[in-house]
Design goal:
Distance between the termini: 69 Å
Order of helices and strands: HEHEHEHHHEHEHEHEHEHEEEEEEEEEEE
Shape: elongated
Number of helices: 11
Strand order of the largest sheet: 11-19-18-13-14
Radius of gyration: 29 Å
Helix content: 10-25%
Length: 478
């Protein structure tokens, strides 16, 4: 049975132990010192470096920074490593990798003395793991995995362990360490041929899919919005194991993932998270945190629906009597179906609308209440709605206020977001959300480049997303 282990208490215990060791060394006149060697100014490196310095400060380790420009030469970096190697006042070295392309990775790895290598990048450090030789140092990330297991007294002898990832710093060293504890180890990654068979050993399968970050950004467009490569086929193979499958998608744009969402037992869309995305994902999957995000854009069913957005202008033939192409009768007449605003293969709406987002609980929205059914062109009304947590866990919900101008001198959007409020409710708790809707919120720009509030009938929603809820009508008067 899989067990979720929390790293925080292990880190706290290790920090306490390390702080005590540092005090012992300082009592002998020795200041433990870590060299941090960085090339360039990558944001991920800078963020991690700040974290390293903070943690070192907490346990009493001094830090010496060696920073080279992104266009530094290999000779410059080798001189820095030579200084680290020969300085007896430096007791460990953290070298940020991957290095820029002008560096030969093997040459750099060979240049650092293994006893000063805290991250397990040198060949000697790795050899100590793979040859079962106790050299007194090993890749610290893999070692940290073993520390967590030991902290919780997890029995390893005779147990099955699946290590996903073949990196020389984490995956392979961790597999070797587990093997020494008499565990049966399966080492795999996304290219593992028998991955479905490996996953049958698990209680739950978590598949992380999506796009590489390099595929997103300015001038990084895609015409095909499906998952790249064979990811969908892999998901089908994992689903065929009969195990529950949780799909985590990281991408920089809306994707056409209706099929994948239907295959998975649960789906979490992360976009491209920052440096704390990993801990956030772990807490969400472990149930230590509850999802409360809402989509900032609509997700299409098919790429041909783009551009797709919630606040579109109504057409002269809004979608009605929808008949999809697979349901059209044989030899049907040319004008017997269609002819309104929808796609014959995708229908009329998105797969997931703007503002959409589920939780580990459920919320019920009451009727929308207005302080008045009318207001003049300089007035305001209060819009209220009761929201209830009808599930079993405490969670947050973002209530969204939408309006529609039913008749305007220019065609108006079918909905416009005018406000939102995030509230947190305990199981069974109910609370009113209230919005002040001003006449000026209903103004729009005319063809004569003026901004006006036109009298007439409007609709207002308080809902969980841009495609749900029941509207209430009010009127703006002169």
């Amino acid at each position: 049975m899989a067990t979720i282990l929390k790293g925080a208490p292990v880190v706290a215990a290790m920090n306490e132990r390390n702080a005590a060791l540092c005090e012992q060394l300082k009592a002998k006149g020795i200041t433990p010192t870590l060299a941090v060697v960085r090339v360039g100014e990558r944001e991920d490196d800078l963020s991690y470096e700040r974290g390293v310095m903070t943690r070192c400060g907490k346990v009493g380790v001094a830090v010496r920074q060696f920073v080279l420009p992104a266009d530094a030469t290999q000779e410059q970096l080798l001189r820095v490593l030579d200084e680290v190697n020969t300085d007896d006042g430096i007791h460990g070295c953290l070298l940020f990798r991957p290095l820029p392309k002008q560096f030969d990775d093997r040459t750099i790895r060979a240049a650092l003395r293994p006893e000063k290598d805290i991250d397990g990048i040198t060949d000697a450090s790795l050899a100590g793991v793979f040859t079962n030789t106790d050299l007194g140092y090993a890749p610290c990330t893999a070692q940290a995995c073993m520390e967590i297991l030991k902290y919780y007294s997890v029995p390893l002898s005779g147990k099955r362990a699946v290590v996903v990832g073949r990196s020389l710093v984490v995956g392979k060293p961790a597999a070797m360490m587990l093997d020494r504890e008499n565990a049966t180890v399966t080492l795999c990654n996304s290219r593992t041929r028998n991955l479905p068979e490996v996953c049958k050993q698990a209680d739950i399968v978590v598949m992380v899919a999506g796009e590489e970050a390099v595929l997103s950004g300015e001038a990084h467009c895609r015409a095909d919005l499906s998952l790249p490569g064979a990811q969908t086929e892999m998901l089908k193979a994992l689903k065929a194991t009969g195990k529950p499958v949780v799909l985590v998608v990281m991408a920089g744009r809306p994707l056409t993932i209706s099929q994948e969402v239907d295959l998975a037992d649960a789906t979490l869309f992360m976009f491209h998270p920052g440096t704390m995305g990993g801990p956030a994902l772990a807490k969400l999957l472990a149930g230590e945190a509850v999802p409360s995000g809402k989509l900032p854009m609509s997700f299409p069913r098919m790429a041909g629906q783009e551009p797709m957005y919630y606040n579109y202008n109504n057409s002269g033939r809004p979608a009605s009597n929808i008949v999809l192409m697979d349901d059209i009768e044989l030899e049907a007449g040319q004008t017997s179906t269609g002819c309104t605003g929808y796609y014959l293969d995708a229908g009329d709406g998105p797969a997931f609308p703007f503002g959409y987002g589920l939780s580990y609980t459920t919320f019920a929205y009451g009727d929308v209440r207005l302080s008045s059914a009318t207001m003049d062109k300089t007035g305001e009304i209060e819009v209220a709605c009761t929201i209830s947590n009808t599930g079993k866990v405490e969670a947050s919900e973002t209530a969204q206020l939408y309006v529609r101008d039913l008749v305007g001198s220019l065609t108006r959007p079918v909905r416009e977001l005018k406000g939102f409020e995030k509230i947190t409710l305990k199981p069974g708790e109910s609370r009113d959300v209230k919005f002040t809707l001003k006449a000026s919120d209903l103004a729009f720009h005319t063809s004569s480049e003026t901004t006006v509030v036109e009298p007439g009938d409007f609709q207002v929603w308080v809902s969980t997303d841009s495609a749900s809820g029941t509207p209430v009508k009010f009127t703006v008067t002169e």
